[in-house]
Structure formats: structure tokens, C-alpha cells
Specification:
about 450 residues, mainly alpha, 18 helices, about 80% helix
Amino acid sequence: MIRKLQELYRASADERGKRILRHILMGAGLKVVNSIVSILIIPLYLSLLTEVSFGIWLTVTAVINWFNIFDLGLGNGLRNRFAEARAQGNEALAASYVSTSYFCLAGVSLFLLLLFLLADAFANWGSLFAAPEHLHTQVNAMTRILMLLFLPQFVFQLVKVVLTADQRPAWGNAINSLINVLQMAMVWLLITVEADSLPVLAIAIGGVNLLVLLLSNLYFFLGKYRRYRPSYSRFALQHIRPLMELGIVFFVLQAAAVVVFMTDNLIISRVLGPEEVPAYNVAYRYFNFAAVFFGLVTTPFWSAFTDAFAKREMEWIASMVRRLLRLWVLLALLCILMLVFSNVVYRLWLGDALEIPFLLSAIMAAWVTMSMLLGIYGTVLSGMGVLRLSLYHAVLVMLINIPLSVWLAGMPALGSAGVILATLIGLMLRAFFQPLQCYKILNGSARGIWSR
């Protein structure tokens, strides 16, 4: 696999290829750290919380993350526009895009705060998340704390978008790694002092997330990225439109991702009970190791493809796609091996704390394998900003995923495996049109909707 990575960049001796390789190698070490933390933190959570409380925690945090879609796609719009401005040598425009995005998201964050405070006056969050009645008070407090600590992060996480758009995703990964390590340390500390309260856990985890992002913004925008530092003087109303032209498409795609992926815990909690959520989450984390590694390779390509497409370097894009496909074959084989040994790994990892059905593991492995394949073509199309067909597919998936997930999860033979099966079904149409669209664009035969 290392040899495949070397081949991936051997043909590209230019600065773009060197930067991609450098950040993949840097990111590889950080992904190892994240993987270790992901393995160790699950037993820690199960030591701190009951299976039901842990399931509620996973469900609430997943729902809070839904609100990331309310950036209206500005994050991904900034990612493309910033890279385009840099490719054209227009640093002032790139800086203006950064400031405009920050101030727009600050306004959205305040609006979301008002909406949440209004909803909080009437909602019983404990009942919504199917918590036992004796946990309602804790769940209500936990939800308020997590949401209030999340909203500033909603703005400050843009620093990672800037780093990725500048083809330096390893630095964004370093921020994530620091957050993950500190989260694990906080869970261990809470176990040590026997503080198993959900609100206390929310303060610890939410506080770590916010603090690291705040310090990262100060570090980068007072240092290497000083020329892009958010400033009201660089805010430009006329730049909202170019950010939103792409951003609104990304917003719909993000909304579809929320419906497809981030409602899973809530559906399982409501249909099968919160005690079924941890097993699903463990299977997802296990097989997602392969996807995380593949994402490490593909993430730097988004902005690199934007740069290459702006310069009409189609052959470079095509050659990178071919090499990524070879790497995908190896990772698909890895997923098969992970499935064969999954029960052994689960026992070594968690002992008898959880039982993960083999059917759940099998469908999860198939979904991860398909997602990695489509991730290649999705990265190409996102980098190019050619997303109309993907937009239509996203709307279709939003309409069918939740009812299909609920129906399949309600089948006794499937249970929680039905939720990820519904997601896999939603990918099938994309598996047809995205590869075809990429090849049409790269060979110059794309017309009409295929080129938009």
C-alpha cells in the first residue's frame, strides 16, 4: 500500500504534487493518533456511562452536529473560491472571501442561537431523545450546554477550511487530533473523579472543542495566515453571491448527508431504543478506519483539482484518478479482511460489553467500500464545482432515506443493520452517474447537465 502511495505521486514532480504528498505523510501520523484514540475512548465511555446513557450521548451529539449544515454551504464555497483566487494570484480576493465567510457565519450563528432559545422554552429534550424519565433533567441540561458551546465552534471551524483550501489539510488534521486526545483525557479524568453526569461530560467535551478551535484561529491568523485574518474592513457584500453560488449546492448536499448519515442514531434510538445505538456506532467506527485512511489521501486533492481545473490540466486530473482507483482496490480488500476478523476484533476491543451482529458488520463494510469509491469521483466533481447531477441525487435521497431507514430497521431480521442498508441503497444511483460524468468532463465530451 505504501508503494501505491509512492506511485500515486511519482509522476507529479510539480509543487502541487509535492505539497499533496507532504501533507498525506504528515496526516498519516495524525490519523494513527486519531485511530488509537477512537479505539481507546469507547471502553472509557462505557466505563463512565451506562449503555443507555452512552446511546443517548451519541444520539444528542449527532443531532447537534446536524446544525453544521446551516453554514449554507459557505464552508465548501470558501474552500473552492479561496483555492481559485490563490490559483489566479489574487491574494486580496482570497482574504476578502475569508472575512466575508466568517462574518456571514457569525450572523447565522446568532440566528441559530435565537431559534434554539425559543425551542428550548417549549421542548423536553429528554423525551425527544427517548431517554428514561429519570434521565430527562440531565439530558435537558446536557443538550443546552452542548448547543451553546457548539455555536461559536460553528464559526471558528472555518480555520480548517482555509488550511484545506490552501492544500495543507494536515494542519487541520492536527487540530482534530489535539481535540480527540484532549477529549479522551477529559473522559479519563471524569472516570477518575467519578463524575458520571451527562451535563458535566457536556461541559468537558464541548469546552475542549471550543478552546482548541479558538486557540487555532489565534495561532494561524496572527501568524502564517495573517494576510487572510478576518476583518470587517475586508467583508464584501458582493462576494456573498460567488460564495453562495457554489455554497447553496453544497448546502443541499450537506443537508442530504445529514438525512443520510447523521439521523441514523436518532432513528435507531426511536425505533429500537437508545441501548442499540452503541453497537451501531462501534461497527461504524471499526470499518470507518479504512475510509478515514482513504480520506487522508483524497482530501488534499479537492483543492488540487480546483487548481488544476482552473488551469485546464485535465490529464493531470485523469492520471490522479487512475492512481486513486488502484489504491481503492487495496482498501476494498482490506475491508473484506476486516469483516472476516470483525468478531475477533470486537472481543479484543470491548470484551463482553457489547454484541455487534455480523449482518450489521457486513452491510457496514459494503457501505464503506462503496463510499470510498464514490469519494474519488465526488472529490473530482466538488473540486471542479460541477455538482448539478449530484444535487438532484441528494434531493432524491433526502426524500427516501428516513422512511426507508425506519421501515428496514423495523424488520426483526435487520434491526439497526437496516439503517445502514437504506444508506447503501441510496448510493447505488450515484455509483452510475458520477464516474460517467467525471469521464465525460475529462475527455471533453460533457454537454448540458453533464457539464454543470
